[in-house]
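Example record used in the benchmark description.
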Amino acid sequence: MPKLVAKVEGKGNGIKTVIVNMLEVGKALARPASYPTKFFGCELGAQTQIDKKNDRYIVNGSHNADKLQEILDLFIEKFVLCENCENPETQFVVQPKKEKITAVCAACGHSGMIDMRHRLSTFILKNPPEGDSATPQKMKKLKKEKGKQENGDTSPNDEDDESGFDGWSDEVKVNGNHANGNGEDVGDDWGEDTSEEAVKKRMEGLGEGVKTLTFNNDLDKSIEERFNIFFNFVKNKINEGAENLPDKDIVLEAERLDIKDRAVMVLAELLFNENILVQIPKHRVLFLRFLANNQKAQKNFMGAFEITTGSAFPDQLIPKTAHILKTFYDQDLVEEEVLLEWGSKVSKKYVAKDVSEKIHAKAKPFIDWLKTAEEDSSDEDEDDEVEVVYTNRSEAAVLAEEAAKKQPAPQVDDEGDLDIDDI
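Model output (structure tokens):
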């Protein structure tokens, strides 16, 4: 796959990022270029523009190539790799009426459901792949051809050959073995043993990326139980003693448990203490993965800040409230709009009302500074619009005229004559 090339165009509200080689990337992944483009929009909360005629694939806003490449890696894990063998040789079977998308692997023959909770799945249902990608009709032809071959009819079928799909049939024998077109056994079906021990053993053999895609029962649990799972996951990573936490693994676990917007509350509890001013820049990248362009997560983060400051370490941190908020602002963790909204009202959602009042009182100097900075910025914008009058007179002449204006006017007597003493 070629490296993603992104080009930022426009200014102000019209700024946008053009994915220059999205068509080549899509071909390398055997996916329509519109799929990863739309995935960028879903993950970044931005609108996308897809112009197939002119091969223009655009994501609104300014985004650098490295950031988009990280999101593309997530797309590959979710919508390209086989969840069994981790090979990218998969094709989609899209069934809009059943609201079902199946990924069929040409390498191992595995057939698995795509996560239908993601917004991209809805887009795929409305815009199924064309060309060589698998369709329900082609799958029926493949099954029909397989039946003919098993019955001894090996006559070629030109129509079926056009499908370009030479993977295993998704039919399974009674003994649990897959069979290819010639009726040859290709090994035991690893999914035949569904006991808890067997499932655990198979999970250990899968890569980290595939583990996040494997269906599990955790999403059926309550939000509190999922929070506990995430809490223990992060705590174990911390206890492993690595110098840097595995940011991507933590994000993937939060996404798997569907708590990404609120996961920052767990992270704040585990990573912040009375030394928060030192810890904020240390864990900045991890928190940015959750907070960047996500005001909902930022508001939850402010709630976590109140808990850490007002409940966990009130004596040490409440006096430092303004400094902590300034650090949030300087590190781009919380947007100005969210900070001003938080500072405008006292809430008892996270801590007792009297504690929240103390925190807001200490935060007032920073909030006032933020408001003043915003007003000064507006004034500067107005000053920029002041009309400048150019003159061809020399600078000396202009200075002499200004000096003359500052001198007091000569006194005039009652008859209108000048007083000679005042000249």
